[in-house]
Amino acid sequence: MIEFLLSYETLRVTWWILLGVLLIGFAVMDGFDMGVGTLLPFVAKTDIERRVAINTVGPVWEGNQVWFILGGGAIFAAWPALYALSFSGFYLAMFLVLLALILRPVAFKYRSKRPEKAWRARWDWALFVGGAVPSLIFGVAVGNALQGVPFHFTSDLRPIYEGTLFGLLNPLALYCGLVSLSMLVMHGAAWLAFKAEGLVAERAKAIGSKAAFAAGLLFAGGGVLVWLGQLGGYRVTSAIKWDGPSNPLLKTVAHDGGAWLANFAAHPVLWLVPAIGIVGPFFVALGFRTRREGLTFIASKLSVAMIIATVGLAMFPVILPSSTNPSHSLTIFDASSSRATLRNMLLATAIFMPIILLYTAWVYRVLWGKVSEKSIEKAGHSAY
Q1: CA–CA separation, 90 vs 99, rounded Å?
Q2: Domain residue limits, the chain
Q3: CA-CA distance, 146 to 233, in Å (whole number)?
Q4: Which residues contact 100 (CB under 8 A, 6 or more apart)?
């Protein structure tokens, strides 16, 4: 049994699942932080209201961002070819994301250092940029991955990327960016409705309801595009050797309009995942209207998770298709690290992941409760 669990093919599939868990964890945990930042100019009109919104995420955003670091680290260690292509090919896009993410901690730390209205307004807009820009660009990146990325390998496995920043900003990718942005705005609004009190929570519910409808409709529209073959798809046409060498040149891949639906057709139970991704946001909108904040936030988490999981299930076993040479696409069976690396990383994950989860649960338990204007005034300078 242990030999099977630690076999090369099992480790590759396990790390594909773990990568999905980490990316979903980032979207679910840090996603509502980015959603709150995006909503800040619209749900809070006065300084005290902005402090209420900011203090719902201020004590936890650093811990939530650990999921982003874990995801990047997992890609670097488990899928080095994917890391090299995505972080070099998408370099300018990643630079914009990191610049926006760097603005966020600076804004959290410096906003309250001076009382001037103009000073705080500038940092409030920095928080908006730190939430909206990554939310949009992460979706754009997913859209490009679904369409295929212009890269190929030389005979000595040196990756060559042929795209540009403006090539990434194509209509279908921007559409996926809108799905991501509306989804995380919905998630941030669900958090504010759950955690804040007063006008901030009421405005969040109103905006979140609209964002939830937009997320559900846009995601369903994306499904229609896939169904009609507008997003294309990539299918491995040669025999798959799950424990074979990590060499993306030893297979053949075809561009096929229905490829992203093949896994769902082969395993109909998987249709539950996109179905929940479509229906879930409408339940979130209903939750906003019925004022069930806890259930609304849970439904928002589930919706975000299922939308992201849909993409992973559709692409499996492909993780980054090549639009210029489909047979050079990266898959989970030819782009991973060595068996020893995957095994050792899995053992470390089995030890440290439960510790991270327990610590995260403890932090949220300690910080349980609503944030109100009275609590901010009582905290004084100790609050953000």
Answers
A1: 14
A2: 2-382
A3: 7
A4: 129, 130, 132, 133, 134
- Contact between 216 and 319 under an 8 Å Cβ cutoff? The reply is no
* Cα-Cα-Cα-Cα dihedral sign, residues 189, 190, 192, 196: positive
Question: What ranges make up the beta strands (E) of the chain?
Answer: 151-153, 159-161, 234-236, 253-255, 318-320, 330-331
Residues 274 and 306: beta-carbon distance below 8 Å: yes
Nearest to 138 by CA among 285, 271, 9, 27: 27
In the numeric block, the tokens 């080095």 are attached to: 80
Strand partners, 160: 152
The pTM is what? 0.92
Q: CA 159 to CA 168: how far, in whole Å?
A: 18
Q: Distance between CA 164 and CA 169 in Å, rounded?
A: 9
**Residue pair 56/190 in contact by the 8 Å Cβ criterion:** no
Would you give the DSSP letter of residue 253? E
d(CA 47, CA 87): 38
Instruction: Quote the tokens at residue 245.
Output: 């060498």
- Whole-angstrom distance, CA of residue 32 vs CA of residue 57: 8
pLDDT in tens, 22-73: 999 999 988 999 999 999 999 999 989 999 999 898 888 877 888 888 888 8
Q: Which residues contact 359 (CB under 8 A, 6 or more apart)?
A: 63
Distance between first and last Cα of the chain: 52
Query: Which residues does 89 contact at the CB level (< 8 Å), separation at least 6?
Result: 149, 151, 161, 163
CA 260 distance to own-chain centroid: 19
Cα 330 to Cα 121, 150, 160, 336, 368: the distances in Å are 45, 12, 13, 9, 43
**Helix, strand, coil tally for the chain in percent (to 5):** 75, 5, 20
Write down how long the chain is. Answer: 384
Q: Which residues contact 369 (CB under 8 A, 6 or more apart)?
A: none
Do β-strands 159-161 and 330-331 pair in parallel, antiparallel, or remain unpaired?
A: unpaired
pLDDT confidence bin for 140, thresholds 50/70/90: very high
